[in-house]
Amino acid sequence: MQLRRNVLTRRTAVALLLGLAAAGCTPQPAADRPAPAAFNDTDTAWIQLMIPMDERASLLTDLAPARAGRPALAAWAKEAGSKLDDELVDLRELLRLSGVPDTRPHEGHTMPGMVGLDTVHRAKNVTGDGFDRLLTESLRAHLVQVRMLCASERTSGSAAQAKDLAAAIERSVAEQINRLDEVT
Predict the structure, then answer these.
(1) What does pLDDT average to over the chain?
(2) Residues 150, 173: contact at Cβ < 8 Å?
């Protein structure tokens, strides 16, 4: 059955290509989009993991202005949230360039460094020192994991745009960790 389906699919594809050739047509790339760069599996996996990681971290940084006990920590979280927003714009653009659909393969997952939805729920119910501890522990774990993911992307990825963004995020994360150490 599977063999028959493969043969029919191949015959259909060959007939379509022959029909296009006979008509003098060849498939053309969309004029408004450049051809995708050489994105490998590491590139797309990195992008598809970084998007939900940053989205979850943003849920926590968004709570900081109203819930943090220390103004310096609230200011750091606001700055970190802004960087997350910028990263998300860049990551979504890379996903678009890769040609991979946004299927959200990590939706609902909880992985090392990913702020859990239970953590966000708890954070909504605490203020002051309790919130500060939750924010600090969660975002430090996030930043450490992101740094490792970016190092892996730079080592094993193939798309220059993805590797460049990973390097930029890695530098930003190092700065954010240093600043977090200063305010805690």
Answers:
(1) 84
(2) yes
pTM of the model: 0.78
Cβ count within 10 A of residue 127 = 14
Element (H, E) at 99: none
Per the DSSP assignment, residues forming a β-bridge with 141 are none
The Cα–Cα gap between 141 and 163 comes to 22
Query: Packing angle between helix 128-156 and helix 160-183, nearest 10 degrees?
Result: 150
For the cut 90, the answer to whether the pLDDT of residue 15 exceeds it is no
118 token code pair: 């239970």
Q: Which is more confident, 2 or 101? A: 101
Neighbouring residues of 16: CB distance < 8 A, sequence distance ≥ 6? none
- Average pLDDT of span 115-119: 95
For the chain, the straight-line distance linking the first and the last C-alpha, in angstroms and rounded, comes to 64
User: Cβ distance 78 to 65 under 8 Å?
Assistant: yes
Name 78's Cβ contacts closer than 8 Å, sequence gap at least 6: 61, 64, 65
